[in-house]
Structures are given as C-alpha cells and as structure tokens.
C-alpha cells in the first residue's frame, strides 16, 4: 500500500510491481494506471486499486500488514 500525493490530492494505492519501491521514490504517471518509478522507463508499476487517503484506514492497514515488506510513503 502506498500513499500518493498529487497537489492537494492524497490517495492510498495498491500496486503491482517487479521492483522494490523505497521511501522517497517518486511515481510519475504515464498512461492507463501505469507509473514510472523515479522517471526510469525500465521501472514501471501498475496501480491496481486506489482510494482517498484516510488516516484511520492507513493505521489499520499498517497494523494488519506488519509482515508485508513492500510498504512505503511516496510523494510526487
């Protein structure tokens, strides 16, 4: 689960990616829910679901996903 910032819009998203996403990485939209990681054409990911950010929901997800290694906060 990622947090995406786009201006005043803040979203939580699940993604499919072959690449590890690190805190501080920036996602750049290209087309049809596809994003580049740090503008690297060879590192693409797909948004599989997204919802408006909720601090309560985010805390709940963090607690339930403690064993999941791919959690990051992404700004862009």
Order of helices and strands: EEEEEHE
Proportion of residues in β-strands: over 45%
> What about the largest sheet?
6 strands, mixed
Give the integer mean of the pLDDT values. Answer: 78
Structural class: mainly beta
How would you sum up the global shape?
A: globular
Helix content: 10-25%
CATH class: Mainly Beta
Count of helices? 1
CATH topology: OB fold (Dihydrolipoamide Acetyltransferase, E2P)
**Intertermini distance:** 16 Å
Q: State the total count of DSSP E strands.
A: 6
Q: Which runs of at least 5 residues are low in confidence (pLDDT < 50)?
A: none
Radius of gyration: 12 Å
Which sequence of strands runs across the widest sheet? 3-4-5-2-1-6
Description:
The protein has one helix at residues 55-64, and strands at residues 2-6, 9-17, 27-31, 34-37, 40-52, 72-73. It is globular, with a radius of gyration of 12 Å. The model has no long low-confidence stretch (mean pLDDT 78). The chain is 13% helix and 50% strand. The protein starts with a strand and ends with a strand. The chain has 1 helix and 6 strands. It has one domain (2-73): Beta Barrel (OB fold (Dihydrolipoamide Acetyltransferase, E2P)). It is mainly beta and 76 residues long. A 6-stranded mixed sheet has the order 3-4-5-2-1-6, with no helix packed on it.
């Amino acid at each position: 689960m990622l947090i995406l910032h786009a201006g005043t819009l803040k979203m939580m998203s699940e993604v499919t990616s072959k690449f590890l996403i690190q805190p501080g990485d920036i996602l750049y939209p290209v087309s049809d829910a596809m994003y580049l990681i740090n503008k690297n054409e060879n590192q693409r990911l797909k948004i599989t679901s997204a919802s408006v950010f909720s601090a309560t929901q985010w805390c709940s997800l963090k607690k339930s996903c403690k064993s999941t290694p791919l959690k990051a906060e992404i700004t862009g």
